[in-house]
Design brief:
five-stranded mixed β-sheet; alpha+beta; Translation Initiation Factor IF3; 3 domains; disordered N terminus
């Protein structure tokens, strides 16, 4: 993406002029919004970014929404080391083969060569598998339901802030179970948790389903995912949940004595989302004025801008403080009482930062005991009596959330097309730039043909029952699958 030079001076020209058109220059728009809204900044190590306080607060609110759901489903948090012995990664052959090109290695420490190289955590299945083998002895020790919030490192060649970076923040859940059915239920449960979070907290419409074999996590039995569609028509894998079967249990000797007095291998899962979902949030909801944030994850849900003019200046400021005090228990508010910039500059500033609701109060409003509510999206200004301001603000935030969800759902629905033949798939990918729904026989040769001819990849296998013929070979369909170009 093109790096954009951003002026910090309030006296410079309007914010909107500093943000390229989203529809015409999408990549440049994305970078400009991140920099201008002070979500992140570049660091002098390729592929690494500094997350600024405003951006990190969004991530913290996302963490809170997910962490609450994890704990409601019986999971607890722990932490595992950043460094993984080389021998651990070698134990699961499919796993190490996939991750080997992306692993960063530590070979020296304290000026000495290490006796065994240490991988900088690309993911933690191997480290956690080693520990679970130590902790699990009996069926009474199961299930183990652990999540960790941490950073991981993958040596990416092409990077973009939040979407693909060498170091990134995420959560990774790791569970161990007594039976295959329990592990499968866990993997599907966490997929539902991710979908609920995306749709409820982020107002982001997603598709969910199982990944084909070619797209599953290395070493997994099954991988499930949620996929969002970005404004440029490309899919974004927003969260994954893996049923690992007994592959990692076998590699790390995770065994337990069952109630029938026989020793058995455990069944394990892993699941995770990263700050890539924050990148998706920016792209899905933002516009030519900048960032647009759903209320659940907005650091500031409502900004109060007093119009400080004339003799009523102190009265207006006092009223604005009163509004802030009345909202603060329920709403994350900010009182913008700066005097060195104009109200118009403030309006542009907070709109660019994606604040869902602006509350204006001036001398005329004060005389009528009212304030003006201005939503970032989805409606015109509305008048709210000061006496009922808290209820009016809550209602306005609820309307904004509904608007964002409705817009996202409408975009996704309108960018799913069905194709019956290979030519139709190729044409749909080229012209529509969205999800293409098709019938597939399940054979690798047909998938390879679809990939080669369309330039797209199979994102999900739907739960829908197949009906008809494979779009490539014409044989009986075994799956309904969604194809798209993807990040």
């Amino acid at each position: 993406m093109t790096e954009v030079s951003i002026s910090e001076s309030p006296e410079e020209s309007g914010f909107v002029k500093e943000i390229p058109s989203k529809s015409q220059h999408f990549a440049e728009w994305y970078t400009a919004v991140i920099l201008k809204a002070e979500l992140a900044d570049y660091y002098p190590v390729r592929g690494c970014t500094v997350i600024r306080p405003y951006g990190y607060t969004i991530w913290e609110l996302m963490q809170q929404g997910l962490d609450r759901r994890f704990k409601e489903t019986g999971h607890t948090n722990a932490y595992f080391p950043l460094f993984i012995p080389q021998s651990f990664l070698r134990r699961e052959a499919e796993h190490v083969e996939k991750f080997a090109p992306e692993v960063a290695w530590v070979t020296r420490g304290g000026g000495e060569e290490l006796s065994e190289p240490l991988a900088v955590r690309p993911t933690s299945e191997t480290a956690i598998g080693h520990m679970y083998a130590r902790w699990i002895r009996s069926y009474r020790d199961l299930p183990v339901l652990i999540n960790q919030w941490c950073n991981v490192v993958r040596w990416e060649k092409a990077t973009r802030p939040f979407l693909r970076t060498m170091e990134f923040l995420w959560q990774e859940g790791h569970t161990a179970h007594r039976t295959a059915d329990e592990a499968e239920s866990e993997a599907r449960l966490m997929l539902d948790v991710y979908r609920d979070f995306a749709e409820t907290d982020l107002c982001m419409a997603v598709l969910s389903g199982r990944k084909p074999e070619s797209e599953k996590f290395p070493g997994a039995l099954h991988t499930y995912a949620i996929e969002a569609l970005m404004p440029d028509g490309q899919a974004l894998q927003a969260g994954t949940s893996h049923n690992l079967g007994q592959n990692f249990a076998r590699a790390f000797n995770i065994k337990f004595l069952d109630s029938d007095n026989t020793e058995k291998l455990a069944w394990t899962t892993s699941w995770g989302v990263s700050w890539r979902m924050l990148g998706g949030l920016i792209m899905v909801h933002g516009d030519d004025r900048g960032l647009v944030l759903p209320p659940h994850v907005a650091p500031v849900q409502a900004v109060i801008v007093p119009i400080l003019t004339g003799k009523a200046r102190e009265e207006v400021l006092s009223a604005a403080r009163g509004i802030s005090a009345s909202l603060t228990p329920q709403v994350r508010t900010r009182l913008d009482d700066r005097t060195e910039v104009t109200p118009g500059w403030k309006f542009n500033d907070w709109e660019m930062r994606g604040v869902p609701l602006r509350i204006e109060v001036g001398p005329r409003d004060l005389a009528q005991r009212q304030a003006i509510l201005v939503p970032r999206v989805g409606g015109e200004k509305r008048i709210a009596p000061l006496e009922g301001i808290a209820e009016a603000v809550s209602a306005a935030l609820a309307d904004i959330k509904q608007t964002l969800s409705r817009q996202s759902n409408a975009f996704l629905d309108s960018h799913i097309v069905s194709a019956a033949t290979l030519d139709e798939v190729v044409a749909a990918i080229a012209a529509h730039r969205g999800f293409v729904r098709l019938q597939w026989c399940g054979e690798d040769a047909c998938e390879l043909t679809l990939r080669r001819e369309s330039g797209a990849s199979p994102r999900l296998i739907s739960e829908d029952a197949p009906a008809g013929a494979c779009a490539v070979c014409g044989n009986r369909s075994r799956h309904v699958v969604y194809y798209a170009r993807a990040y």
